[in-house]
Amino acid sequence: MRVIVCENAQEVAKEAAKIFAAQVYMKPNSVLGLATGSTPVGMYKILADMNKNGEISFKDCKSFNLDEYYPLAPTHDQSYRYFMNVNFFDHIDIDKANTRVPDGLAEDPAAMGAEYDAAIDAAGGVDIQVLGIGQNGHIAFNEPDEKLVAGTHLTSLTESTINANARFFEKKEDVPTQAVTMGMASIMKAKTIILLATGKAKHDAVKELLDDKITTSNPATLLKLHPNTIIIADKDAYNG
Ligand code: F6R
User: Fold this and answer.
1) Whole domain around residue 146: which residue ranges?
2) Is 136 noted as a catalytic residue in this protein?
3) Are 79 and 68 in contact (CB under 8 A)?
């Protein structure tokens, strides 16, 4: 695992954008694994500016997002599909038909999950996966548990995650308690993974990510088994 420590969140965004843009520059038809949440927003903004300036193009890229609230329609303003459109896709030249987010309305989430994983494989696998990290070490919505799930699946959110995400909703009761999420194997298959972490609230989770232990009670620690993961953290997340 390579670790890059940055002065602040803006520097994290710049470092992440550099690595992400290099991937797209080297392989214009890259398969992109994308995350929502507040952490990658700065990186998306830089990439959108680079696209506007003609430095990189996403027109031949495909993308797969990590997760979606369940049940939630893609048109809902708190859905991750909506988030991706507003924060990234609407500002770049990617063909939206080539962008996928797990279906938050799937009647049969298990079948949807199997199809989603098969679609990623059929696209050639994710070339670069962007991850944030939860305060409890979750990646995507793989929450700490005794057993983690391999493929894309329906899951329940922990109290910690519901509390953390309540800031995006009018009130805590509005936060969906379930989500459809890529599983650990789906994530670990990505060729390159960049995990972004900013702010003191992420320090405990990041600290465990940087010791030599692996535990399902901090799902991010499984990334230590991945051959090409880069952690980009600001000083607050790194030092606490
Ligand atoms: C979002 C996702 C989540 C977030 C995590 C951190 O697609 O998969 O795991 O990355 O909850 O969220 P922020 O960046 O808002 O602190």
Assistant:
1) 2-155+182-239
2) yes
3) yes
CATH number where 46 lies: 3.40.50.1360
Largest CA distance in the chain: 47
Do you know the residue count of the chain? 240
CB of 39 shorter than 6 A to ligand 1: yes
Q: What are the pLDDT digits (tens) for 36-68? A: 999 999 999 999 999 999 999 999 999 999 999
168 part of a folded domain: no
> Do 113 and 153 touch, CB atoms closer than 8 A?
yes
Q: Is any atom of ligand 1 closer than 6 Å to the C-beta of 67?
A: yes
> Would residue 61 count as lying in a domain?
yes
Residue 174, domain member (yes or no): no
pLDDT at 173: 94
The pLDDT value recorded for residue 189 is 98
Q: Is the Cα dihedral 105, 80, 236, 47 positive or negative?
A: positive
Q: Which of 15, 51, 65, 67 is catalytic?
A: 67
- Ligand 1 atom index nearest CA of 181: 8
In a mutational test of the pocket of ligand 1, which residue from 36, 44, 100 has the highest number of ligand atoms less than 8 Å from its CB? 36
The domain tally of the chain equals 1
CB 209 within 8 A of CB 199: no
Among 83, 69, 67, 38, smallest CA distance to 177 is for 69
Separation of CA 119 and ligand 1 centre (Å): 23
The label of the residue with tokens 């805590």 reads 172
State whether the beta carbon of 134 lies less than 6 angstroms from ligand 1: yes
13 occurs within a structural domain = yes
Any atom of ligand 1 within 6 Å of the Cβ of 35: yes
C-alpha of residue 214 to centroid of ligand 1, in Å:
20
